[in-house]
Design goal:
Blueprint (H helix, E strand, L loop, with lengths): L34 E6 L14 H9 L15 H4 L2 E6 L7 H17 L3 E6 L5 H12 L3 E5 L17 H7 L9 E5 L11 E4 H6 L2 H12 L4 E6 L21 H9 L6 E7 L10 H19 L2
Parallel strand pairs: 1-2, 1-3, 3-8, 4-5, 4-7, 5-6, 7-8
Organism: Pseudoteredinibacter isoporae
Protein name: Agmatinase
Enzyme class: hydrolase
Length: 305
């Protein structure tokens, strides 16, 4: 099985689009695999519009539009020459059973991470980041979190399944180090006096030059192992209408890609792209943005090698 030429040799944008970027679809975690794409089609913890269970498939389908370019602009290398990627498919769980979802996701993530693979998960609602953080922190200890979102997701809720309280619970469970964590693109209410994370709000990020934004992120994170979580509603609805809780005034797709691209010297050990709900989008705009961000993240991880 050839990884370096798998999708580069098949630029078709409408045939055989079963996996992300045409990566091999399988579950063998041997030495020929460096990074793993995992879909999690779950949206039972959402508080807004449902539909993110279709996000992983929407992102995969949209990724076909990115397969024709041998070297993704502006990178100067072929992804497969540095990073051999596998699409693991989706986590399977009993319909409507959130407890089973957490169990199956945790077991799958543990398996992938213990095999020393970089895990990039596609959602699904943002609650999924909490069980993923539990798995990743088992290997790396408390993580620095880089969180792109319109919302801080720090609601002080004891609800077991809530896509707005993951980053309230994660510090309490010792999964992330708040002193080295940062949230980007926020533009909704939070506790300004007691908030544990540094916040770069959307207006500030949009007004600053790229170097200033990246300096803030890198100074906060330092040399810590990083978990990067990207809620697609960090983007303005003009660039990502297909999501459950859209908020005007967000980042452009280009701005977000520039920031992500600038993180290549950080130690990103796992990542996710969440909250894509294709049904609220008339032209795959959101799915394409998410697929592009996912591909950019893979290049960022590859560039570090």
């Amino acid at each position: 099985m050839s990884f370096s030429n798998n999708f580069n040799n098949d630029p078709n944008t409408y045939a055989n689009i079963f996996s992300f970027m045409g990566f091999p679809l399988g579950r063998e975690l041997d030495d020929s695999v460096d990074a793993v794409i995992l879909g999690v089609p779950y949206d039972l913890a959402t508080s807004g519009r449902s539909g993110t269970r279709y996000g992983p498939n929407g992102i995969r389908q949209a990724s076909a539009q990115l397969r024709w370019e041998e070297k993704r602009w502006p990178w100067t290398f072929k992804l497969g020459d540095k990073l051999r990627c596998l699409d693991y498919g989706d986590v399977c769980f009993t319909d409507g059973d959130s407890e089973d979802l957490v169990s199956e996701l945790s077991e799958t993530a543990d398996k992938i991470i213990s095999a020393n693979k970089t895990l990039l998960s596609l959602g699904g609602d943002h609650f999924l980041t909490l069980p993923l953080l539990r798995s990743v922190s088992k290997r790396y200890g408390p993580l620095a979190l880089i969180h792109f979102d319109a919302h801080t997701d720090t609601e002080a809720s004891d609800a077991k399944y809530n896509h707005g309280s993951m980053f309230y619970h994660a510090p309490k469970e010792g999964l992330i180090d708040c002193e080295h964590s940062i949230q980007v693109g926020i533009r909704t209410e939070y506790d300004y006096e007691q908030h544990p994370f540094q916040v770069l709000n959307a207006s500030w990020v949009n007004e600053q030059d790229l170097g200033t934004v990246l300096k803030e992120i890198k100074q906060r994170v330092g040399n810590q192992p990083v978990y990067l979580s990207f809620d697609i509603d960090c983007l303005d609805p003009a660039f990502a209408p297909g999501t459950g809780t859209p908020v005007s005034g967000g980042l452009s797709a280009d701005r977000a890609l520039q920031i992500v691209r600038g993180l290549q010297d950080l130690n990103i050990v796992a990542a996710d792209v969440m909250e894509v709900a294709p049904a609220y989008d008339h032209a795959e705009i959101t799915s394409l943005a998410a697929a592009t961000l996912t591909l950019e993240l893979l290049h960022v991880i590859a560039a570090k090698r």
